[in-house]
UniProtKB/TrEMBL annotation:
InterPro entries, per database record: GAF-like_dom_sf, HTH_MetabolicPath_Reg, Tscrpt_reg_IclR_C, Tscrpt_reg_IclR_N, WH-like_DNA-bd_sf, WH_DNA-bd_sf
Organism, scientific name: Pseudonocardia eucalypti
Residue ranges occupied by any IclR-ED domain in the UniProt entry: 67-233
Name recorded for this polypeptide: IclR family transcriptional regulator
Keyword Transcription assigned: yes
Phylogenetic lineage: Bacteria, Bacillati, Actinomycetota, Actinomycetes, Pseudonocardiales
Pfam families associated with the record: HTH_IclR, IclR_C
Superkingdom of this protein's organism: Bacteria
PANTHER family: HELIX-TURN-HELIX TRANSCRIPTIONAL REGULATOR, ICLR FAMILY, TRANSCRIPTIONAL REGULATORY PROTEIN
Alphabetized UniProt keyword annotations: DNA-binding, Transcription, Transcription regulation
Coiled-coil ranges from the UniProt annotation: none
Record field: transmembrane: none
Domain HTH iclR-type: 7-66
């Protein structure tokens, strides 16, 4: 049970934040979960959205915002601390955009990124939520997800169960123009101390520059970066 601080507006705002964090919701659901009047719930949700603590998706539903990821990064998340050291080196080695993704239900979140200083890039801001149904990062996270999640992802995915079997066999995934036209990427799994896959590290960029077989070019470097992240954990 959440504690009450005695500061009414703060407790209500935290209640709104928790309601949206439990499951993305529209205004009617937000009112139902919090018991707040419609005007109050809307005002607080919009205020949290302004500060990046909530984010509205294309369907108008509120969900946790990118500022929460940034706050987590400053609170000493070991994976994000490791990423701050490893991702820039991978960026410099490849000359391309580098991202770190975690799965959140049926979406993946960019929790860290490192961009080259110049040139055409595939910029994915920290906090961005992407589908689990397309892209090399999605394939990696789906390949080592539980069976129920895999079945749900494969319902609308651009890849198949056979693809995931191949990803697990070779230890990395690639994609060409799946998530976005003209963009290619390659990803590898990051494991925790128990051997569980907790994230996917990715390199992405224009197909014209990376080529249509990005795995042949960058998979070895990605696997080394994933190992470096695991060692720092």
């Amino acid at each position: 049970m959440r504690q009450h601080s005695g500061i009414g507006v703060l407790d209500k705002a935290v209640g709104v934040l928790w309601a949206a964090a439990t499951e993305p919701c529209g205004l009617a659901e937000l009112c139902q979960r919090t018991g707040l009047p419609r005007a109050t719930a809307h005002r607080l949700a919009v205020g949290l959205e302004v500060h990046g603590l909530l984010h509205r998706d294309a369907d108008g539903r509120w969900r946790p915002g990118p500022a929460l990821t940034e706050l987590a990064a400053r609170s000493g998340d070991p994976l994000l601390e490791a990423a701050s050291a490893v991702l820039p080196r991978l960026r410099d080695l490849t000359g391309e955009s580098v991202q770190l993704y975690r799965r959140d239900g049926m979406q993946r979140i960019c929790v860290a990124a490192s961009e080259p200083a110049s040139g055409l890039r595939d910029t994915v801001p920290v906090g961005t939520r992407l589908s689990m149904g397309a892209g090399s990062g999605a394939k990696v996270l789906a390949a080592w997800a539980d069976p129920a999640t895999q079945r749900a992802v494969l319902t609308d995915a651009t890849f198949t169960e056979r693809t995931l079997l191949e990803v697990r066999r070779r230890g990395w995934a690639q994609s060409v123009a799946e998530r976005e036209s003209g963009v290619a990427s390659v990803s590898a799994p990051v494991r925790n101390l128990e051997g569980e896959v907790v994230a996917a590290v990715s390199v992405s960029g224009p197909v014209d520059r990376i080529g249509r077989r990005p795995g042949a070019r960058w998979a070895a470097n990605l696997l080394s970066a994933a190992e470096a992240l695991q060692q720092r954990l």
